[in-house]
Structures are given as C-alpha cells and as structure tokens.
Amino acid sequence: MGLPPLEQLRESMRVVSVPLRVRFRGITTREVALLEGPAGWGEWGPFLEYDPAESSRWLASAIESSYATWPATCRTTVPVNATVPAVPAAEVAGVLARFDGCTTAKVKVAERGQSLRDDVGRVAEVRRLMGPGARLRVDANGAWSVDEAADAVRALAAYDLEYAEQPCATVDELRRLRIRLARNGVDVLVAADESVRKADDPVRVAREEAADIVVVKVAPLGGVTRALDVVAACGLPAVVSSALDTSVGMAAGVALAAALPSLPYACGLGTVALLAEDVRVPPLLPDRGVLRPGRVIPDPARLAALAAPPERAAWWRERLAAAYEVLRGGL
User: Fold this and answer.
1) Closest Cα partner for 269 from 230, 243, 287?
2) Does a cis peptide bond (omega within 30 degrees of 0) precede residue 19?
3) Which of 177, 215, 176 is nearest to 198 (CA)?
4) Is residue 109 a contact partner of residue 151, using CB atoms and an 8 Å limit?
5) Could you confirm whether 106 is annotated as catalytic?
6) Which end of the chain is more exposed for a tag (fewer CB within 10 A), N or C?
7) Sign of torsion, CA 61 103 87 17?
C-alpha cells in the first residue's frame, strides 16, 4: 500500500483530548489524532514524548486502518482482561467494576514512588475480589532489575500469577531472569512487551529464549498485518494489548486478536474503560468479558466535544509532517 498524500491526511485529521478516570502511565488526559480514509477511521496516538521515527510506526498503523483492509478473522469473539492501574488496594473494586464479565486481570506494578508492599497489597486485593478461578498477571513495564524482579515475582507468585509482563527492561535481563526463576523453582512465565514493540528486532526476544509469551500492540508495530508477521516470526503464544486507545484504535487491536491463528490468553483490549469519555457512543467495552471484531465510526458530536485546543491541533499537524517524512524515506 502506497502512502496517501500528506495534505489528504492533514485534511481528515481530528485531534481529541480525552480525560482518564484515573492516572495511568503518568497521565490524566489522552491526546490522539484520528484519520478518516476510504476504508474507515484509524487512530494515530503515539505518546507525546515519542520522536518522529517511533511515531512513524504508529502512523503506518493508522494509515493501514483508514486506507486498507484488515486481514480475515479466525474468531468472532476476543476474550479481554481487566486492567488495574497502580491504584491503592482500596480502589481496586471500583476499577474492576468497569470490566464487565472479565475473568482475567492485569495488574500494574513497580510504579515509581511505590514499594513492593504496595504491589503485593494491590495484587492480593484483586485475587480476593476475583476469586481463585480468575487469572492474574502483572506488568512492571521494565522497571525492575533482575534482582528486584526475582524477589518481586517470588513474592507475587503466592497469588497464582499467569505471567509477569516485561519485568526487566532488556532482552538480556529477561533471559537471565527466566533462568533464575527456573533455578529457584518459581513457576511464573515471562512475557515481553516493550522488548517487542520498541525493538529494532522484535523477534530477538524469541530467538534468545528471553520470554515465554509475546505481547503485541498494533500501533507500535506498524499495523495489523505487520503485527501478525511479528507473531508468526516469534513462534510464541501472543497476547494482544492496547496503547490506551479510544474505541477507534481499540478496533484495530481486536482485529489483530481475531486474526491470530491461536489465542490462548485473554487480551488487554478493555482499556477504553479507563477513559472518562470516548469518541463513540457507546464506547467499545467488553460485553460479558469479550469484544467482537468490527470497524468503529466516531460520533461527530463526540469529536466536537473532545476536540483539542487549536494550538494542540497545530502541534499535531507539525508532528504528522515529521512522522510522514520518516515513512516516506523508508519506502
């Protein structure tokens, strides 16, 4: 697929500023751009600190969504996990209440300024509320050293973890941690997220046996088709996750999960529940623990109500030009 003209993208782009229910990833407002093309709508939402090179992969994904056809689906429903931010244990019940029918939860841990005691308290509360039959996983976003991760995973393993997502930052650290956990008899799988979506070589984590599971996100990998190729090349079980998307971006994640030949784990595609508002009414939220694949069309009234200030829209137009140049240079 060739690149559409830059001016065409600029003309269709709508920038929205969406408030969050709770602080997540250090932010309380999610700012994204939406693009409309002949195939529908795509979401371009690289986080504000990302440079043009990293942002260009997200742009490729948005262009695929709005100008191309997604791959054929292998299933009609996608199981979804609840996502629990690094909130105090007392707030866990309120978070879980927003994830209808989900029997798996991903719990954020290793938040800056918090301790392992905070993490244990949060995970213990999730387990208490969801019961022994629920599946629990934790996500450290690469914040621990190997020593810290070994201690933390050992402590959290008491709550029957499905896996630990990106406990350490580098591929080498993940590999060393897997070896240490095995030697210590700690039966917790290691999943790689940032080591896949932020890597120049996303298959390295599988080649070096540094993970048991890969977590893939559509936008950072450049689109649904590209993400499918990465999963196939890794040859590991995959979990599809979101990047704090609106319903438009979430639809692309659901399309990827629905197209995977095998999907043994619930996917992190319920985070629209963390948004206080959305670009669609009703928002794309789990129904009895699942989502169904399909295109999402934003509501014009919601686009108007959530429109970012003119100076922010201008900033995104400049950002679009910079990311577009990176994409054009790579063709």
Assistant:
1) 243
2) no
3) 215
4) no
5) no
6) C
7) positive
Rounded-to-integer distance, Cα 51 and Cα 331, Å: 19
6-70+304-330 and 78-291 share one CATH topology? no
Question: Phi, psi at residue 21, to the nearest 5°?
Answer: -75, -40
Average pLDDT over residues 39-44: 98
What is the structure's pLDDT at 1? Answer: 64
Options 3.40.50.300, 2.60.40.420, 3.30.390.10, 3.30.565.10; CATH for 6-70+304-330 is 3.30.390.10
Q: pLDDT (tens digit, 9 = 90+) per residue, 178-198? A: 999 999 999 999 999 999 988
The dihedral built from the CA positions of residue 127, 128, 133 and 134, taken in this order, carries a sign that is negative
The per-residue pLDDT for range 193-220, each reduced to its tens digit, is 999 988 889 999 999 999 999 999 999 9
Q: Are 182 and 230 in contact (CB under 8 A)?
A: no
Q: Band of the pLDDT at 330, cuts 50, 70, 90?
A: confident
Residue 331 has pLDDT above 70, yes or no: no
**Cβ-based burial of 85 (10 A; exposed 0-12, middle 13-18, buried ≥19):** buried
Domain boundaries along the sequence of the chain? 6-70+304-330, 78-291
- Whether the pLDDT of residue 49 is over 80: the answer is yes
Q: Looking at 30, 57, 106, 108, which residue is catalytic?
A: 108
Q: What does the alpha-carbon distance between residue 93 and residue 294 come to, in Å, rounded to a whole number?
A: 30
pLDDT digits (tens, 9 = 90+) for 62-78: 999 999 999 999 999 99
Active site residue 198: no
Sign (positive/negative) of CA torsion 240, 267, 232, 181? positive
Domain 78-291 has CATH 3.20.20.120: yes
3-state DSSP helix/strand/coil percent for the chain, to nearest 5?
40, 20, 35
Given 217, 226, 302, 319, which residue is catalytic?
A: 217
Quote the CA–CA distance of 183 and 178 in Å, as a whole number: 9
Q: What is the residue-averaged pLDDT of the chain? A: 96
Alpha helix (H) ranges present in 202-246? 204-207, 218-221, 224-234
Q: What's the confidence (pLDDT) of residue 41? A: 98
